[in-house]
Amino acid sequence: MKKTNTLTRLTIEKFRNVAPTTLEFRPGINVLLGRNATGKTTLLRLLSMLLDVPGEPLQDEPLSASWRVMGRILDFEQTTSRVRVEAPALPLEPGGTPERGSLPGLQYSGALRFEQDGDEVLRAELLPTELVLHHAGSSTREARHSSSPPITSIIASLWRNQGEASLELTSKLLHSRIRTSGRLDEGLDRFNETNRLNPEPDRHTARLSNLKLFFKRAGEEVSHEELSHGQKRLLAFFAHVDASPDLVISDELANGLHHEWISVCLDEIGERQAILTSQNPLLLDFLRFGGIEEVRRTFILCERMGSAANPRLIWRNLSEDEAGSFFLAYRTGLQRVSDILRTQGLE
Q1: In the chain, which residue ranges form alpha helices assigned H by DSSP?
Q2: What is the pTM of this model?
Q3: Per-residue pLDDT reduced to its tens digit, 295-347
Q4: ATPase AAA-type core domain location, by residue (predicted)?
Q5: How many Cβ atoms sit within 10 Å of the Cβ of residue 39?
Q6: In this structure, are residues 79 and 281 in contact, taking their beta carbons and an 8 Å threshold?
Q7: Longest dimension (CA), the chain
Q8: How far apart are CA 301 and CA 34, in angstroms?
Q9: What secondary structure letter does DSSP report for 192?
């Protein structure tokens, strides 16, 4: 059995000013490349939101997207759509006529398909007000609350309709989701929040604040307030990785870190999947590749096209030609990864 759940694909049909695209990810380290204002942080936030990490502000934005996860037990594909709709405004007084105009809102719909060894285990249709489950040759339909996470709605429906008979399946569904604590910011926000997440299904989230941490060694005691910027970043990263058993999402990982600490961070990630940004070439030089396809999936280029008044964000994997050219240069061992990317205009 695989040790982690892995995000393999993200398709964006409609989101802000992003051109429709399909992005592929590899197990292990993935890196977003691009200049400032090309949407790298936005893409990390979008991933966090789609994976149901609480607190992401993108929850209230229209979009249409799908993604696929290769799981430890089940594989699944999920689609989601949030469309802006106009609802009639309510009257100000009982019995009165509605006010002119309307109230904007989001209408949610989506679908999930779970598979084991290529065979469908369960399929769910999440309509604006209904949940339809297809399982074991039968279908059930019931009302749903659009504010509930899809997996929560599905498990609640299984329990209502099948009771204890659904325990094995609901356990598989819970363990198929990607466990991540979302995006680690590029500064010290996470460190200052002292926010500790426990993503396991049977554990609660603990939010702690106003903590005082002390670090001791022979003859010396240091408060967390006396740590350097880099030390605080490192401490926050360790806590972040510990709370992200499957997927580590980090913005500007190398910010403020000595090159030896970057190596320690990558070692800490271990067998987890990671999606990172870094304008520091030191991180890139730690990457290793076994073939062209691995290169193609590792890097995602973020570009900004169009005019200043009407910009268009382009997010894409490397092309086969770009990945092949990179791997040929990489295999000679004469240039560092960051130098190859710079030489070939892929930064």
Answers
A1: 40-50, 150-162, 167-174, 189-193, 229-242, 259-269, 281-284, 292-298, 320-332, 337-343
A2: 0.87
A3: 999 999 999 998 888 899 999 999 999 999 999 999 999 899 999 999 999 87
A4: 29-285
A5: 22
A6: no
A7: 79
A8: 6
A9: H
